[in-house]
Amino acid sequence: MTDDRKVKIAWKDVHKGFGGKPVLRGLDLEAYEGRSLVVIGGSGTGKSVTIKTALGLLAPDSGVVEIDGQAVRPGRIDDPGVSQIGMLFQSGALFDSLPVWENVAFRLIHSEKVARKEAKDRAIEALGQVDLDADTGNKRPSELSGGMLKRAALARAIVAKPNILFFDEPTTGLDPITADVINRLISRLVRKMGATAVSITHDMASMRIIADDVAMIHEGRIIWKGTLDQVDTADDDRVRAFVEGRSEPAEG
Amino acid sequence: MNPLRVIGRGVLALLQSVGAIAIFAGRAVLGVVRPPFFPGQLMGQIMQIGFLSLPVVGLTALFTGAALALNIYTGGARFNAESFVPNIVALGIVRELGPVIAALMLAGRVSSGIAAEIGAMRATEQIDALKTLSTDPMRYLIAPRVLAGVITLPILVLIADIVGIYGGFVVGVNSLGFDPSVYVRNTWDILERWDVISGLIKAAVFGFLLTLMGCYHGYHAQGGAEGVGRAATHAVVSAAVLIFAANFLLTSLFV
Ligand SMILES: Nc1ncnc2c1ncn2[C@@H]1O[C@H](COP(=O)(O)OP(=O)(O)OP(=O)(O)O)[C@@H](O)[C@H]1O
Ligand SMILES: [Mg+2]
User: Fold this and answer.
1) B168-189 burial, b if ≥16 CB within 10 A, otherwise e?
2) Is residue A126 part of a domain?
3) Please, are residues A19 and A61 in contact by the beta-carbon 8 Å criterion?
4) Phi/psi of residue A167, nearest 5 degrees
5) Is residue B41 a part of any domain in this protein?
6) Number of domains observed in the structure of chain B
7) Structural domain includes residue A234
8) Each residue's pLDDT tens digit in chain A (252 positions)?
9) B70 lies in a domain?
10) How far is it, in rounded angstroms, from Cα A60 to Cα A75?
11) Does residue B126 sit at the A interface (CB-CB below 8 Å)?
């Protein structure tokens, strides 16, 4: 499958453990420019940790994550690779001390030094893109439902028009209809922006809507990668078992 | 288990956390002096730490001054020194009790509050989110709180001094039979500028320590809601211990 796709993000032999317990054990993975990669895998297999190493939030014990060929420097908030990423956290992670619009506008105000008024306009525009109105923008995050929180967090991730988008389980905790709405939003926004997207999910419906490429993580390694159409015919039984929702790989 | 090994491990752990706190303090100070600054955050914290603490600090100072006056009167009566009530109340409040009591009340109110708030932000990935939005949590969260502590504590203590002396005055005049103008004059005559200033220097140091402890324990909170609760407890206890230790050190420097 070597072709003209350009690697945007590369995890190279990344190891990461916590207190002696290994979580990532030599993870190798590429996300291609302008494509949407979905990483699937069971709970606690290190999916969130994988994303956090690319954000510089966790330093790999060994190995490196590269964005545009440049190694990510952990802990550096001004890292050129990291600052082009919009991130949707698993829990939303909106700042509860700020109204929703200011959450959305945070990067514009504090890092891009956009004037407050203009930042607010752009925040409200971004809220509109995720079907939230200006009224919601004036509420506190604690006043929103789970689905609205995810949308607001999504607006915060896209407002500065990042080149890269990370989504950590965008649909967990949502009812199937709301999940479907969020999936379609993500898919539409990513395509419209032409961004490179990396999503984590164990929601197979979500994968089918969002993904161009799929990779499966198991025990801290990537055990399979391919395009979305190759998932159902994957040669690895653990992948098919996961996709079909079986707890045991098929016999024979 | 070898007892020496247990002791050794304890000492190492202690040294390690002292080192970690020192590094954290250094980063907090850097955040205070190096841009970008967040004046909006600072104003909010001055409000939260300073203004909203006025009632607690005022009330405790009032009662402390009143109780102090009574104690000195009965104690002083044993060697005919009752007339020193105004002087000793003033010195005791300004040099020692004002700063220490205000700081302890704030350890309860502010250190725990900061630890819980920042701990919850840690638990809900808000601190990670700040970093991904290219904002340094040391500058956005920690520096404004620590600076607000250093700025507001001296002001609070100055108010505590006045209210505390007033508490002594009320008791002195109403129950101990002092002449109001004599009481005021004795208070005024005994106090030297350095008494007040040394108390305010203490206050600034306490303000630094108690906000720092709240920030440190909140920032390093682990393990969900339980971890947040633990962070708040540790913040209060460590702030209180540090306040007493610093009070002793500063007092021995200042006398
Ligand atoms: N900061 C941390 N400190 C200690 N252990 C951690 C930390 N972050 C993750 N872990 C551990 O690493 C392992 C993998 O965590 P991770 O969050 O990546 O799982 P996940 O694949 O995202 O699971 P889920 O689908 O449940 O979100 C877990 O066992 C977790 O306890
Ligand atoms: Mg996760």
Assistant:
1) bbebbbeebebeeeebbebbee
2) no
3) no
4) -125, 115
5) no
6) 1
7) yes
8) 556 789 999 999 999 999 999 999 999 999 999 999 999 999 999 999 999 999 999 999 999 999 999 999 999 988 898 989 999 998 899 999 999 999 999 999 999 999 999 999 999 999 999 999 999 999 999 999 999 999 999 999 999 999 999 999 999 888 899 899 899 999 999 999 999 999 999 899 999 999 999 999 999 999 999 999 999 999 999 999 999 888 866 554
9) yes
10) 11
11) yes
- The answer to whether residue A203 is domain-embedded is yes
Encoding tokens for residue A173? 């905790």
pLDDT tens track for B124-174:
999 999 999 999 999 999 999 999 999 999 999 999 999 999 999 999 999
Contact call for B131 and A90, based on CB within 8 A: no
Question: Domain of A207: which CATH number?
Answer: 3.40.50.300
Report which of A170, A146, A153, A28 is spatially closest to residue A103, judged by C-alpha positions. Answer: A153
Cα B179 off chain centre by: 34
β-pairing, A221-227 vs A213-218, is: antiparallel
Tell me the C-alpha distance between B141 and B115, whole Å: 11
Interface probe with B: pick from A55, A87, A90, A112, most Cβ of B within 10 Å: A87
Domain ranges, residue B76:
55-254
Considering the entire predicted model, what is its pTM? 0.92
Closest residue to B125, CB basis, from A77, A89, A156: A89
Has residue B224 been placed in a domain? yes
Please tell me if residue B34 touches chain A, with a CB cutoff of 8 Å: no
What is the number of structural domains in chain A?
A: 1
CA B148 – CA B113 distance, rounded (Å) = 14
- State residue A248's pLDDT score: 67
Say whether residue B36 is in contact with chain A using an 8 A CB cutoff: yes
Which residue from B124, B134, B140 is facing A83, i.e. has the nearest CB? B134
Which chain A residues have a beta carbon less than 8 Å from that of B130?
Answer: 95
DSSP per-residue string spanning A58-93: S--SEEEEEETTEE--TT-TT-TTGGGEEEE-TT--
Mutate to test the interface with B, among A49, A72, A88, A97 (most CBs of B within 10 A): A97
Domain with A27 in it: 7-95+161-244
